[in-house]
Amino acid sequence: MKFICGPAGFHVPGDDGAMQVVIYGKAEPGQVSVGGYARELIDRAHLEISPRAWDFLSIALSVVAADFTAIRAQSADGWTRVIELEISVQDPVFWNSQARGLENALRFLTTDKWTLSFHPGGFGPPAQLQALHPTEDSVVLLSGGLDSLIGAIDLVAQGVRPYAVSQIVRGDGEKQDHFAQSLGLSRIGLNHVTRSPDAQEPSQRARSIIFLAFGLAVATSLDRYHRGETVPLYICENGFIAINPPLTSSRLGSLSTRTAHPEYLGRLQEIFNAAGINVRIQNPYALKTKGEMLAECRNQDLLKQHAIASTSCGRFQRFGYKHCGRCVPCQVRRASFKRWAAVNDDTPYVHENLGLRDKQHAWFEDVRSVGIALANVAENGFEEWLGHSLFSPFIQDRAGYRAMLARGLEELGQLHRSYQLT
Questions:
Q1: Does 277 reside within a domain?
Q2: CB contact at 8 A, 23 and 119
Q3: Which of 87, 138, 195, 253 has the most crowded CB, counting CB atoms within 10 A?
């Protein structure tokens, strides 16, 4: 599927039949719009964004618009899409030099086949008559999730002063604001607000790129950046979910998220470096399990106050803004609370008792997948189960990652044994 992405009225030769994506503007009937609200909020905040960071934001918005609009079920194999983007930016010569790198990063993230081409005429960042350069020393992505909460708590406890950037998600906005306030953090909440004429693709595997793009944009507005210093951009995710090894042979590729995988983040970092964007992506918890993050959090009292209110579920909105209790992220969360053992896990799970022998609990696909992984390790050994999960040039400390994954799987094993599932 082909998309033409740029200001209203932007065209390229041979775009007949392509879907028009209006970036930062109002779409006509039958077109897609994206990014207008985010531009407005950044303008109101008087943030002065680097031109190339703004171009990357335009690219990310185009990617998300395509990801929402291209329906997987309509592809040849029912999953893998062929997506072609023609994107209007400020610096098309530079971005065309990075097109293959961006395509590779997106293919790793979503397993779709992406082709990107860049053209002149894109919007630049909003002009600021009274630009603000926030004095924070870094940016932290604050999602409302448990890992990002722990990350923010730990940074503050270590004397770091991050600016919190959130992607506004229905059901999480209030807790994002509450977490930031409790830590004394400045925060901006942004959203791509993609509107497409037809049904949206539910998998949305590329959505994480916009969160990083928002963080990158804000990072380039900081006073530290404008003084020529490197700005850390913290994405805090436990290592088990970041690697997200396929639990069974059927959970491959896009069926497992790669939002914080070191290869995806490493590919993007290479592009930022080539762009001269002096921002460094960091995940301090790449070698930690979720249970270890909880147990080792530097402010246990604050964590105890907020942990239950955090969100982990992969189907949170689908279940009326409640944790389903049975998806893989929910199981990892529940296992981490058992590892922590400092408070009872009073999260109201829709499917609480995983030991019930029915399709909604013990026989639910994600619960069975974890059980199969545990059985595979018990029968064939950890290395057999791990397979090629750590075969990436962006993973240097393979021994460290291997040990972390073994500990993470053991946390899940403790959860399953508590419900007599193994």
A1: yes
A2: no
A3: 87
Q: Which of 68, 70, 90 is nearest to 78 (CA)?
A: 70
pLDDT digits (tens, 9 = 90+) for 160-188: 999 999 998 776 778 999 999 999 999 99
Considering the domain architecture, whether residues 317 and 231 belong to the same structural domain is answered as no
Q: How many domains does the chain have?
A: 3
Which residues, 6 or more positions from 164, have their beta carbon under 8 angstroms from its beta carbon?
139, 140, 141, 142, 152, 176, 179, 180, 183, 185, 186, 187, 188
Structure tokens at 240: 């088990």
In this structure, the answer to whether residues 251 and 162 fall within a common structural domain is yes
Residue 127 within any structural domain of the chain: no
Alpha helix segments (H runs only) across 74-187: 92-97, 99-110, 146-157, 173-182
CA distances from 24 to 55, 192, 222, 347 (A): 12, 9, 23, 38
Residues 113 and 145 in one domain: no
Domain extent at residue 72: 2-119
Q: Is 286 exposed, middle or buried (0-12, 13-18, 19+ CB in 10 A)?
A: buried
The predicted-structure confidence for 209-258, as pLDDT tens digits, reads as follows 999 999 999 999 999 999 999 999 999 999 999 999 989 876 543 345 78
Claim to verify: residue 147 and residue 109 sit in the same structural domain: no
Residue 299 included in any domain = no
- Length of the chain measured in residues: 422
**Beta carbons of 277 and 220 less than 8 angstroms apart:** yes
* CA dihedral for 314, 320, 321, 322, sign (positive or negative): negative
- Answer with the one of 282, 300, 325 that is the final residue of a domain: 282
319 and 404 housed in the same domain: yes
| Residue ending a domain, choose from 119, 151, 172 | 119
Alpha-carbon distance of 86 to 271, in angstroms, equals 19
171 within a domain of the structure (yes/no): yes
Q: Distance (Å, rounded) from C-alpha 212 to C-alpha 105?
A: 13
- Same domain for 20 and 142, yes or no, is no
Residues 69 and 176 both lie in one domain: no
Quote the pTM value: 0.95
- Are residues 382 and 268 located together in one domain of the fold? no
Residues 6+ apart with CB under 8 A from 273: none
Radius of gyration of the chain (CA): 21
d(CA 381, CA 46): 55
Q: Decide: 153 and 300 in contact? Cβ < 8 Å.
A: no
Q: What is the mean pLDDT of the chain?
A: 94
List of E strands, 191-330: 231-234, 279-282
Q: Which two tokens stand for residue 308?
A: 């239950």
